Amino acid sequence: MTPAAPRRRRARAAAEPRIAAAPREPGRVRLATRAPAAAAAALALVLAAGTALAVPAAADTNPPPTAGDPAPSAPVPLNTASPGLKLAKGATLAPAKVLDIVSVTDQGSVSASQPEQRDETSNSTVTYALQAEVLFGKDSSTLSPSASARIQAIARDINTRHVTSPIRVFGFTDDLGSSAHGDALSKARANAVYKVLARELTTLGDPGHTFQVRGYGEDYPIADNSTESSRRENRRVEITFTPPVS
User: Fold this and answer.
1) Strands (E), the chain
2) 114: in domain
3) How many domains does the chain have?
4) What is the per-residue pLDDT across 98-156, written as a single tens digit (0 to 9) for each?
5) Which residues does the chain have with pLDDT short of 70?
6) Per-residue three-class SS string for 183-198
7) Residue 213 is part of which domain span?
8) Are 132 and 174 in contact (CB under 8 A)?
9) Whole-number pLDDT of residue 121
10) At what angle do helices 179-203 and 147-160 cross, to 10 degrees?
11) Cα gap 185→211, rounded to integer Å
């Protein structure tokens, strides 16, 4: 009895139609059968499989309303007296807190993505980021003739705001050259800006400021240094101060 079972399975398999793709006509199938009824059954099977495997067309999941559709219902009314909206007995609200919102202004932009000066003002600090190409020549810490006017404007702003907190003057470079050279160049540029800024504040009758002057070289980039355009953004001197709370 055991050897007879495989023969029955092979006989049944032989009775079923064989489907083969036509070698020169894509999209058609050739049915090799021994009976018209078996061919019809195989064709129906192929059509059903094709329907099941077909990718449905993508439809808008949120189509616009059409005539006859019911109008959307109004929002659920809010019951302000609901117990779930009330504070627990003895609970109090946390103190109000003002978020630190930063306002950014680009000035003297050579192009939309390359501002010569970027001003960032938040609820607590003000930062002027001056592009190095505007202040200095290439690989130099000597200020250009046009740099003084920009630093003078910043000094007037500091004087107008009555700033008493330390003023930070930080220099930055890109990642070209050695790290030691970038550190030295950024510090020299920060020093050059600091000297003019302190002199202008003294001229305005506001000499009693404390300064923090540092050079960070290629640290703290604001762009990825992958292109000359992004490296230009990183070559900068930042002047940051905290105005008194009004």
Assistant:
1) 18-21, 29-32, 103-107, 117-121, 126-131, 167-172, 211-215, 236-241
2) yes
3) 1
4) 444 444 444 444 444 444 556 666 667 889 999 998 899 999 999 998 899 999 999 99
5) 1-76, 96-123, 246
6) HHHHHHHHHHHHHHHH
7) 103-241
8) no
9) 63
10) 60
11) 19
